[in-house]
Amino acid sequence: MEKVNVAFLSLGSNLGDRESQITQAIDAMSAHQITLIALSSFYYSEPLGFDSEHHFCNACAKVTTTLQPFVLLERLKCIEQDFGRTKKSINKNYEDRVIDIDLIFYNNMSLESPQLTLPHPEWNKRPFVYWPLLELVELLNI
Q1: Which candidate, 117, 100, 94, 88, places its Cα nearest to that of 25?
Q2: Cβ atoms 58, 77 nearer than 8 A
Q3: What is the DSSP string of 50-114?
Q4: 10 and 102 in contact (C-beta within 8 Å)?
Q5: Could you give the angle at the alpha carbon of 79 between the alpha carbons of 76 and 83, nearest 5°?
Q6: Residue from 32, 30, 4, 13 nearest 102 by CA
Q7: Dihedral-angle region of residue 10 (phi above 0 means left; psi in -120 to 50 means alpha; beta otherwise)
């Protein structure tokens, strides 16, 4: 039997029907061996790190998966691409996006590589990540 891993994700959108984009991305995860356990409320914020007239909608999700972290990251990128996302930010040059999915925590793993750092190095500096995460912690009593 494969090990079931727990991960926390941050999802954001600032183009189109933002709430629907996030909900549809969550729904798409089941086809990629990612199971939703809990989803935070939606949180709204101004863009961080770039100027845009489009505000963000964000949420965090607790998921389970049998995928290893690098495979999970690739599946999340595939979902982003399916929604029309063409590239991730490079050197923190951010831009508007229809969906952004970040892997914040994976089990209790600490990892640093060019492709993936766990926990996500910016999670505690971004209110649109830590407030929804706090909501999940309180909701799930963890």
Answers
A1: 100
A2: no
A3: S--SPPEEEEEEEEEESS-HHHHHHHHHHHHHHTT-----BTTB----S-EEEEEEETT--EE-S
A4: yes
A5: 140
A6: 13
A7: beta
For tokens 């489009």, name the residue. Answer: 54
How many whole angstroms from its chain centre is CA 104?
7
- Looking at residue 11, its amino acid is L
**Residue 92, number of CB atoms within 10 A of its CB:** 8
Going along the chain from its start, the domains and CATH numbers come out as: 5-140 (3.30.70.560)
pLDDT digits (tens, 9 = 90+) for 17-53: 999 999 999 999 999 999 999 999 999 988 877 677 8
Q: Which residues contact 43 (CB under 8 A, 6 or more apart)?
A: 57, 58, 59, 127, 128, 131, 132
- The model's pLDDT over 57-71, given as tens digits with 9 standing for 90+, comes to 999 999 999 999 999
